[in-house]
Structure formats: structure tokens, C-alpha cells
Amino acid sequence: MKNVGEAPQEELATGERSTRNRVARSILDHGPSTVAELAGRLGLTQAAVRRHLDALVADDVVEAREQRVYGARTRGRPAKVFALTDCGRDAFDQSYDKLAADALRWIAEREGGEQAIAAFARARIAAQSGAYRKAVESVPAEKRAEALAKALSKDGYAATARSAPHPQQGEQLCQHHCPVAHVAEQFPQLCEAETEFFAELLGTHVQRLATIAHGDGVCTTFIPKTSHAPPPAAQPPTNTAHASASTAGRNPA
Question: 162: which strand partners?
């Protein structure tokens, strides 16, 4: 990864660059964050965090926004959080987005349009599914979402699992980074295939609440509380899962 928020050498000491990169990396790993959250995770004062954030905002690496609230709102103004911009995300990746988008566009034009893209997206997920399935099948039912999050993190998605906000009964799977976000913005079939796979793997209806590809800070999937039947064997996604996936890649209403 190249250094983010990088000032001229004579103006920015090596330690400052390192700390600034840690701030940006913490936002990548944990999603949009408040000053207090960053200070707590990094062991810095809030004043120091604000100073680094000011520089990162000036360099178009992060941006301030109001914190999204899912479920019942509390009183008062939403907290201000800092999220990575597209430029900031690109700093963490050597991107081949244009090549991938061009290839998918070629497939769509010559091999069957949107249905061909959907078939490709499902095949891509199927090829990667082995590690995810093994992770989920190796833990008790109540630990499935957490196990899936850890497996996704190994592939660069910086994923976490947590209880959904009240009054929702279930869990939220949050992917704080998406290596294919720019391509998925043009081809939502990638998000839809992933959501279908989560539903099939976890053996329950899931709902995609938000995606990085469409402007949200985090890809968020709601997993309702169920009786937790054993994960089904590998098979193509079913139409029941597709109903949940139809909103994948879209912002919540």
C-alpha cells in the first residue's frame, strides 16, 4: 500500500506518516468511525486524531459524514464519522478495476447480457466457496456469522459480525472493505451473487441493507435469528435466496 495523506518529505516525519496510515487503516478495517472510536483503538488523544483526520480530509483520503442509524433513532444529532473516500480505498489496493469492468462488459455484449454476468458472478462465488463453507461447518450454529466474517477477512473484506440493533432479532454481517467495489458499482450482479451465497451457506433468508459499491460506508447484511438448521451441502443458489439478493447493491430505502 502506498502512504496515504502524504506530505512533502521535509514537512512530514516518518512517525507522522506511519500514524496517519494507521488512522486510515483503522477506518478501512472497522468502517466509518468517530474521533473517539479512533482514539480508543489507536491509543491516541482525540486532539491528535483530529489533526491527522484534518490532513487526510485535505488529501481526499477520508471524508466526514453523518453516522447512518439502522433501527430506532436516538435523540440528538447523529454523530460525525469519518469514512474512506474512493481515493483512500485505492491507496490500499493495486486496482485492476478497469480491466475487470471491460472484461465483464465484453461478456455482456457478446455472451448474453445481464444473465451472462449473473452466471459469471455465481461461478466466481462458487469457486471461492470452499474456505467459507469449511469455516461455517466447523462451528456451532450460533457462531456461523462470526466464522464467516473471519473467513471473509482473510480474503481482504475486513468483516465483522455483531448483534443487530434493537428491535431487530438477528445479526449484522459487516464488510468494511470490498476489493471489487468499483466493478460492483457497474455490475450489481456481483453483490447479488454474494448475497445469494450467504443465504445458501447460512441456511436462512438474509437481507442486504447497504453496500460500499453504492455509496455506503460498509456492506451490511442482516441475518435473522432462526432455529439454525445445519448448513446445506454445496448447490446452486435457490430462488428463495434470490428474493433477498434482489436488493443487493442498493441503498436501504
Answer: 172
1-25 per-position pLDDT tens digit: 445 544 444 445 566 778 898 999 8
What are the backbone angles phi and psi of residue 249, rounded to the nearest 5°?
A: 80, 5
pLDDT tens-place string over residues 161-218:
999 887 788 999 999 988 888 899 999 999 999 999 999 999 999 999 999 988 888 9
Give every strand in the sheet of 170-175, ordered side by side: 159-163, 170-175, 219-224, 207-210
Write out the E strands in 26-128. 62-66, 80-84
Q: Cα–Cα–Cα angle for 20, 60, 68, nearest 5°?
A: 90
Distance CA 194, CA 32 (A): 22
